[in-house]
Amino acid sequence: MDTDEKKRLAGIEACRWVRDGMSLGLGTGSTVSHTIIELGRMVSEGEISVVGVPTSVATRDLAQTLGIPLTTLSEVGSLDLVIDGTDEFDPKFCLIKGGGGALTREKIVAQSSKAMIVVADERKQVDVLGKFHLPVEILQFEWRATSARLAEICPGGVALRGGENPFQTDNGGYIIDCDFGGAIDDPRTLESEILSIAGVVEVGLFCDMCDAVILAGEDRVETLVKNGGRLG
Ligand code: 5RP
After folding, report:
1. Known catalytic membership, residue 106
2. 30, 34, 105: which to mutate for ligand 1, most atoms within 8 A of CB?
3. What Cα–Cα distance (Å) separates residue 130 from each residue in 1, 37, 96, 142?
4. Which domains can be identified in the chain, with CATH numbers?
5. What's the pLDDT tens digit per position in 13-69?
6. Nearest CA, atom 4, ligand 1
């Protein structure tokens, strides 16, 4: 099975957890876009009625095209479930997210959700987080100074995403990708440390948020449910 097919199968499998009447967080990325496409089919064929809160402009546009009704956290307060992709997950279901630059909105939506399911292919499963460069969203204002503070705590160095043509998030921020060389042993402490730097908007470490991972491997899709999580 190639990677695209794994993404497609994992994305579609997540829809098994969706029930009629649910309010859903709609994640961002190439894997969860398959979930959103399948949800669009279920809605258009009258199988379910749901409302969604998108985590990016791209996801909002996709959901609108598919006819999935959208709402806001202000309107619904909390969500029954968020389904999203990830860049890495570890055995404790901690995540690195933000490969698509949507980490801040993704985290706002995840923390307002009663449960979180992640869809992934097997490349995303790691023992220790940090091979994937950790995305940090920062303000454009004096971004070099903020980036320099990040470099002080990041052994492998930092890079402005997009370089001379900086990538801009949906919030107008920049992304600094931080190389921790596969050695983020204590993601919670690192999250607090990064968030204490002025100019940082959000960091792509998601701890104690994910309850299950739908994981597509070479010949099967399995659902890993976190012990003691909200879906266990
Ligand atoms: C976007 C994200 C994505 O969920 C993550 O990058 C995974 O994307 P993909 O499914 O395309 O590999 O965090 O900010």
Report:
1. yes
2. 30
3. 26, 30, 8, 26
4. 3-125+207-218 (3.40.50.1360), 134-199 (3.30.70.260)
5. 999 999 999 999 999 999 999 999 999 999 999 999 999 999 999 999 999 999 999
6. 85
